[in-house]
């Protein structure tokens, strides 16, 4: 609690000194050959007053489409979990933008709340890391304010399947084998490659310099998967797990990463507690991801979670000396 109080006090001072607010805009990354367009949002520092804006089931305080402020800003990419959305971690996005970061979050095509057409298809595990690379390419290229971003200070946040995505993006190599359950009874070209052991190379992105990974899906990882991960990682694990993630599987990743991660095990938590507290509209339509264990206060936990994530990215993207 002493550490948390110190971090929160530091954040208040930081916010007051920088006088930032969270600007917000929707984005549409164009299709690239066989890869469909990516829809999502960008949060960024802004000097204009905020107002309440309804985004999906959430009511948030942002300055929509306001001019960006600052130069050489760090960038963080957010990858959501299975059938999630780019809004799934908007509390993280807002606190980072308030502190001077640019944050981009996308919907992974075919595996999001609006489009579930491929959520049980093996292809999403190949394409998710490529989606992250395309989002970074967009932010450093066609995005009108690309010149405001420091391309040497890029971070990654991923939850659940987004945690798998983030680990692959920073260099992890999953092992799919030749008898993949997701390819049982399917004769797609990609599953044909699986059966032959001839999968295309997954998209790693050396531009990513630090990653926060929460309750990652780890079914495809082995003890040899992480030898090429060379960036600092803050790893979070729930006690009760869920959605294919267990306490033991996350602890296993903590032990296998070549650089010892900053590891946080969250007592009495379940998998979906890494999502922000649900507004009434979402709690009614998706009770499975909104209900907490008795005695667990998700809102209170997210004060600590958000503060620790910001402190980690500040340490490893802002305060770190560039080569």
Looking at CATH, which topology would you report? Answer: Rossmann fold
Name of the top-level CATH class: Alpha Beta
Unreliable parts = 1-19
Q: Which CATH architecture?
A: 3-Layer(aba) Sandwich
- Percent helix range: 25-40%
Total number of β-strand segments? 10
- The topology string of helices and strands comes to HEEEEEHEHEHHEEHEHHH
**Could you give the order of strands across the largest sheet?**
3-4-1-2-6-5-7-8-9-10
CATH homologous superfamily title: Alpha/Beta hydrolase fold, catalytic domain
How many helices? Answer: 9
Form type: globular
Distance between the termini: 35 Å
Query: Could you say how many structural domains there are in total?
Result: 1
Average pLDDT, rounded to a whole number, is 91
How large is the share of residues in beta strands? 15-25%
Largest sheet: 10 strands, mixed
Query: Which structural category do the helix and sheet elements fall into?
Result: alpha/beta
Gyration radius, rounded = 19 Å
Question: Would you write up a description of this structure?
Answer:
32% of the residues lie in helices and 22% in strands. It is α/β, with parallel strands linked by helices. The chain has a single domain (2-318), classed as Rossmann fold. The protein has a 10-stranded mixed sheet, with helices on both faces. Helix 6 links the parallel strand 9 and strand 10 (262-266). Helix 1 packs across helix 9 (298-318), helix 2 crosses helix 9 and helix 3 (123-140) crosses helix 4. The longest helix is centred in the last third of the chain and has 21 residues, at 298-318.
